[in-house]
Batch of 4 targets.
Target 1
Amino acid sequence: MAESELCVSGIGISRDVVSTIVSLAARRVEGVASVGGNDIASSLISVFTSRSVAPDKAVESSVEGDLLHVSVHLAVFYGYPFTKLAADVRQAVSEAVCEQIGVGVSAVDVRIDSLVFPKE
């Protein structure tokens, strides 16, 4: 099995596939500006704050038994309570992984790396 592949419930899944599923689900949550360093919002964040997450590190995943453990790095918009936003991201990611891959999620670690302020 390649380093870039996870083996869960008897199937091999590319970490890139898991990252795509997780990123799409997290981006749909209200209050999320971007996942890692994948888009214009995060590029602007890195210009103004000199902080960014490499795209390949935006989503990290590992296998625990027959479940996936996922960490997702986010930039979020100011004004959204972090605890509610994190709970919404956990739910969205868990549902997406379950629907698309067909396996459960042991945990979704939400890492808020940047804060985006709205233009006034």
Target 2
Amino acid sequence: MTSTVEGIHAVILETHNWGRTAKFFTALGFELDFETDHHSGQFRADGGPTVFVVEVPEDEPTRSSLVLTVLDAATYHPDPSLQIEEPFADTHYGTREMVVRDPDGRSWTVRAPGGSAR
């Protein structure tokens, strides 16, 4: 049995200026959930997915990505037609994630709660 993606968990955005981008999201009505000590933080607005913003050096291009949610990495069996770049693995922040590539070459992260697959 193949379980399905539950929805969008988060949007991850890279920026060259954390402070300016934080002010932008606050002006849009997002609330800052938390800020890290390395120029990043998470925003939330009324029940939607979180937006995690992280500053990267000026000489690096900025990227954005979506994080999709599944309930359990152990029971999620992706369709064999999916191109898996990275299988589920533990993260340093307590989840398990895998990365798949879509037909246009974009990477998508699929996230499950930590400890659900061994």
Target 3
Amino acid sequence: MVASLLRAADHRRMPWKNGGGETTEIAVFPPDAGLSDFDWRVSMAKVAGDGPFSIFPGIDRTLSILEGNGMELSIAGQGAVRLDAASEPLPFPADAAVDARLTDGPITDLNVMTRRGGFTHSVRRMHIDHQTALTATGTPALLFCHRGTIEVDGDDLSAQLTPLDCLVLDEAAEKTLRLSGTGTFFLIEIRRG
């Protein structure tokens, strides 16, 4: 299993595509890709005001709230959806027009995006307060630590994740991982096709 541990302090900060705020890039493929030519991308964004989302042609997106009281999204073709930190991750096309209205103050969100026709993805928010086993099927699979401290062990792998760290498992398909600790994390699985 090939693994890379991406520490929170090393994540890259950059302007939003529409210039309306700042995004923190956690992982991107290919590694040197920009906002217009990535195959997949995982990032966080601070949203401090109401307004439109950036449009990403040919991209599918899943959004999760990490911090704050949430927001309401008006998504073209889907209507209005309210998201908060307890909501399930929300998938929608990143090339649909989306307007966001904050519920009560700024939020921080987690974005997972894949290029339609080449890649797909799934995102699950998970909680741990004991030892558990997890089988990842993505190639890659990413474990993004939201809160707490999580120990990850597997074939020739041992890592400790603290808040906003991300473990990228390049060849995780059907590999069993042993997790321990107390915290909340996101399992992001990316697949070709």
Target 4
Amino acid sequence: MGSAKNKSSAERKARIEEMRRAERARERRGRILTITASAVIVAGLVVGGVVLVQSQSDDSDSTTDSKTAGKLVAGADGVSTWKGTLSQNHVTKSVKYPVTPPVGGDHHAAWMNCNGDVYTKAVNNENAVHSLEHGAVWVTYNSEAPKADVDALAEKVKQTPYTLMSPVEDQKDPIVLTAWGHQRTVTGADDPKVGEFFEKFVQGEQTPEKGAACTGGLSG
């Protein structure tokens, strides 16, 4: 009987010890899970903070300066030429150009259709500059330009591939002609300099991407 008691006591102690070992194992697993979960949460907060900062940075800096270096120099023939470099990077933000209308520089990946396209509302500079890169001439005007001249120029543009036309209210002169790296003002639609500018710069030697499409882009 004593032997049976001793055996029962030993078995009970063994079961208790096994239960204690199981409990200690559960506690260790619990600590590991807690530490892991905490690390994941901290990492998530850090990543979220970085993303938030980047997002706020993008929102607060939605424009970028063009990497263009140089200046527009007036020539004896009335055509101003950019003296320096005109960058050609594709960007997603708005670009601060040094002249208005811009004569080149960084631009959006999409170009404005320039197959004789006439836009009655302002277009994004970044898209129009891409059209210049393809060899287009951009005719622009402000509210001081006589309506008769605007209408006549629109007809000329419609008949000329690799041209486009749009209003640019903050330009200095009523009517401006722009090609990649070149620009001039004209007195009106009947100014012979209009035809001369078209002849020289529509798909002219200044074109960085001669033969590139003037269709398949944006249409306003």
